[in-house]
Each structure stands twice: as C-alpha cells, then as structure tokens.
Design goal:
Keywords: Methyltransferase, S-adenosyl-L-methionine, Transferase. This is Methyltransferase. It comes from Streptomyces lomondensis. The chain is of the alpha/beta class. It is 32% helix and 23% strand. It contains eight helices and nine strands. The chain has a seven-stranded mixed β-sheet, with helices on both faces. Strands 6-7 form a two-stranded antiparallel ribbon. Helix 7 links the parallel strand 4 and strand 5. Helix 2 packs across helix 5. The longest helix has 15 residues. The chain is globular and about 45 Å long.
C-alpha cells in the first residue's frame, strides 16, 4: 500500500529524536546546504523581501536563519502540532544552544544575517496550517527543506506539493529548496515510520522546469556522519517562479 500525506499523523512527528539524530551539531551536509543557500541569499538585497515562507518548516531552524538575511517577515508554515510547539518555544522563549553554531556559520557566509540568533528568529511568524491551504501568490520568496519528498510515497503527490510550493510566490518570486535524494520510507528513533518518495536531480528538474526559469539543480553526496536513512545524498535547487 502506498502511503499518502493524509494517511500520516503529523502531530506525532518525533521532534526530540529527529533533532538528536540530525541537528545537534553542524554536519558536513548542513554546511554544504548553508554554503549553497548563502550564495543564493547574497544575490538578494538585505531586507529586500517583505514576506517569505518556509514551506513545511518542521523543527529545523537554519532555513529560517538563512532567510532572515533578506526577509522582513518569515512565515514558518507547519502542520504538525509537535513541530509547531517546538518552533513557538524556540522563537518566543529561548532557542536551544545547539543552534548557535548554525547561526554563526550562516552569518559568516552572509553578514546580512542578524548578529544574534534571537535577532535572526525575530522576523519568524509560526503558522499552524497545512501548506496546501496557502493562498497562491502570497509571498516574494519560498524556501522548502526535505518536505515534498518526505510527505508521501506517491510521486504524483510529490509533484503536486512542488507545484503548490511554486504557486505560493508571485510570478518572478524566488525559490530555494533542498531534497533528500532517493529517500525511501524510513524510521526516526526506535520505532516511528515515515513516508519517503525517491527523487533525484533528473526527476526534480523534470518537475520544476515547466514551473520556473533560471532553474539550478545541484547534488551533494551522502553524509556518513548522519544516520543511514537509505538516501544517496541531497539535491539543492534555486529558481524563479513562473505563472502556473
């Protein structure tokens, strides 16, 4: 049986296990994504984006830190209640010290990132919602990390998520994304099972080419310092949205 997004109880996403396995230190793959995205953000004027979106934010803070270099407001849109609670705690209370090295790297690669972690998170507005309900053309920039390929096992539904991602921005809006390459269904922590849709640079290019211009798709190798989820690395994307 193929698992679709609506078959999954996203409120039960294992935040603590996920962070422990992936984000308690800056792994080489994190550094590669941050370097790639920082080069993208450096091409944009600091503070030049009135409103951007993190599409399916999860509990990962470094995409929000990166976007703070150019965004006056960042909507972190997330469906899972456990992820929403974590984001609200990090932004409204005090962020975990483990995010400080991520902030330091982001700021070193792009000095337009605010000088403190709290300052980088200050523009973030946590939105508890399904990304599929976002109104088209709401944003000037959209960012997505490990969402569409981790929300379903069905390639057609993956492609629908990608189209929705592109539609959230105005035509001419900026897009930046990262995908796990060839990610199968996988486990986090001792027991929880989550869907995966295997994709690669060719399939991502196929999906995004009709939706974008100035599309750039690159690959980074698998990271041996991370848990073996069965993936073969990551695919990174930048582009400009066309009218769809």
């Amino acid at each position: 049986m193929t698992t679709h997004n609506d078959d999954v109880d996203w409120d039960r996403w294992p935040v603590a296990d996920y962070l422990a396995e992936n984000y308690r230190e800056v792994h080489p793959s994190d550094a590669a994504v941050i370097a790639h995205h920082s080069a993208f953000y450096r091409r944009l004027p600091p503070g030049g984006v009135a409103r951007s979106v993190e599409f399916g934010a999860g509990p990962n803070l470094y995409p929000l830190i990166l976007a703070s270099a150019v965004s006056r407001r960042i909507d972190a849109v997330e469906a899972g209640s456990s992820n929403v609670a974590y984001l609200q705690e990090q932004i409204c209370d005090r962020p975990d010290a483990s995010w400080l090295p991520f902030h330091a790297l982001c700021r070193r690669l792009n000095p337009a990132v605010p000088a403190t972690l709290a300052g980088a998170l200050a523009p973030v507005n946590v939105v508890h919602a399904d990304v599929r309900t976002l109104r088209p053309g709401t944003y000037e920039l959209a960012s997505m990390h490990f969402v569409a390929e981790g929300a379903t096992e069905d390639f057609a539904e993956f492609a629908d998520f990608c189209r929705t991602f592109v539609r959230t921005v105005v035509p001419g809006g900026h897009l930046v994304a990262a995908f796990m390459e060839n990610m199968p269904t996988y486990r986090i922590g001792p027991a929880s099972r989550w869907p995966g849709c295997p994709v690669n640079p060719a399939t991502i290019t196929e999906v995004f080419t009709p939706l974008t211009r100035d599309l750039d798709v690159t690959h980074i190798d698998t990271d041996p310092t991370l848990p073996d989820y069965g993936d073969s690395g990551m695919v990174l994307l930048t582009g400009v949205a066309e009218a769809v």
